Amino acid sequence: MSNQAFQKVFTNLTTITKATCTVQAEGISNEEMALVDGMPAQVVKIIDDQVTLQVFSGTSGIFTNSEVVFLGYSPRLKVSDELCGRFFNAYGEPIDGGPIVEGKETEIGGPTVNPVRREQPSELIATGIAGIDLNNTLVSGQKIPFFADPNQPYNQIMADIALRAQVDKIILGGMGMLHDDYLYYKSVFDNAGEMDKIVCFMNTTDDSPVERILIPDMALTAAEYFAVEKNEKVLVLLTDMTLYCDALAIVSNRMDQIPTKDFMPGSLYSDLAKIYEKAVQFPAGGSITILAVTTLSGGDITHAIPDNTGYITEGQLFLRMDTDVSKVIVDPFRSLSRLKQLVIGKKTREDHPQVMNACVRLYSDSANAKTKLENGFDLSDYDKRALDFAKEYSKNILAIDINITVDEMLERCWTLFGKFFGKHEVGIKQELIDKFWKGE
């Protein structure tokens, strides 16, 4: 062993697997960064003097006499206002051709916020998407996943939300992205002139899958800077958490850990909770809200990844293709925001809760009418009107390409009520009908 500018250098590797290597060393701390033959690595296990490192780019070309240089610190990000408008890789290095960011070096993956420092979430985050704002309203400090099939346009939705959301900063963490998706985000943000409020951390398919593990912590470290130091409302968009979990599984399996359900590591729940529990509303006004895409394999909601995610988060948003109108909508039946009651009717118009409930009930009636139709039963006049209502509700309100304010959503709903139903059929309080009804 030798010391070079406080760095510890070792050359006696004892074990090498596809993603990890083990070296005999002392005085090393957990999660410490290292270079193995010049390749970035991180300590993942220490037993006595046997230190196991995960090598992010894989162990190809590493030998038992390869040089291991321990850097003396865990992964870090320099945080400052210079992060805004920039694209970085999993190590926090610029990938947009711009200069290196100067700022305060901060360790990533720190502890979650002490409950004593947390406030009850109470601020509305409007996205312009009715399936969210009208039916499943987002609240600052909330953590909620988007469950989507891999072929759905979730990157487009994330980019739309980034541009529409009424927040101070957007932090995007992309994991396992196609290079085209990376370029798509870059061009959308550039063209919209919104780069000054957006920070992006990207891992593409060209990069090592194991590097994905760093992306959420990088994104959340940047988010904490703006929320804590600047008291800003920050929305963190993470996509795709399924690929993040796959990267965890790669490392776990190559360390010969016994997998649990669906070949996932036994630590999956705590690994996900460590990320999602960073969502917080601070008393001083800053907040971190987390919206994360979890792609489903064949729509399987029971898979270990969505299953664990559902326990940790405060609801879920479900995307599906509505074949009747050929548009992707946020499914009103399978979506849920557990915190929406904290803001609807309080931070939004008084009729919001009643309109939301009436819409979903009438949409449900249309689903029953559709079942009748498919089974060859005659439809009543009400059934036909419910089906017509559902089509317009999907096309003009629920579709993800509609971008309107919450008040406009409510006005459109009242217009549809008046077009297809009588006042007695919508089940809304008389005082609200007297105030807002748009029909005859």
How would you describe this protein?
This protein is of the alpha/beta class and 440 residues long. The protein folds into 3 domains: 69 residues, Beta Barrel (Elongation Factor Tu (Ef-tu), domain 3); 267 residues, Rossmann fold (3-Layer(aba) Sandwich); 85 residues, no CATH class. Helix content is 32%, strand content 24%. The strands form 4 sheets. Strands 10, 14, 15, 16, 17, 18, 19, 20, 21 and 22 form a 10-stranded mixed β-sheet that branches. An 8-stranded antiparallel β-sheet has the order 1-2-8-5-6-7-4-3, with no helix packed on it. The longest helix is centred in the C-terminal third of the chain and has 23 residues. The chain is elongated and about 85 Å long. The model has no long low-confidence stretch (mean pLDDT 92).
Lay out the secondary structure:
Elements: E1 2-4, E2 7-10, E3 13-16, E4 20-24, E5 33-36, E6 39-47, E7 50-55, E8 68-70, E9 76-79, E10 87-88, E11 104-107, E12 124-125, H1 130-133, E13 138-139, E14 143-148, H2 154-164, E15 169-177, H3 179-192, E16 198-204, H4 215-229, E17 233-239, H5 241-254, H6 268-276, E18 280-281, E19 287-295, H7 304-312, E20 315-322, E21 327-330, E22 336-337, H8 352-374, H9 381-398, H10 406-420, H11 430-436
Parallel strand pairs: 10-16, 14-19, 14-20, 15-16, 15-17, 17-19
Antiparallel strand pairs: 1-2, 2-8, 3-4, 4-7, 5-6, 5-8, 6-7, 9-11, 12-13, 18-19, 20-21, 20-22
Helix pairs in contact: 2-3, 6-7, 8-9, 9-10
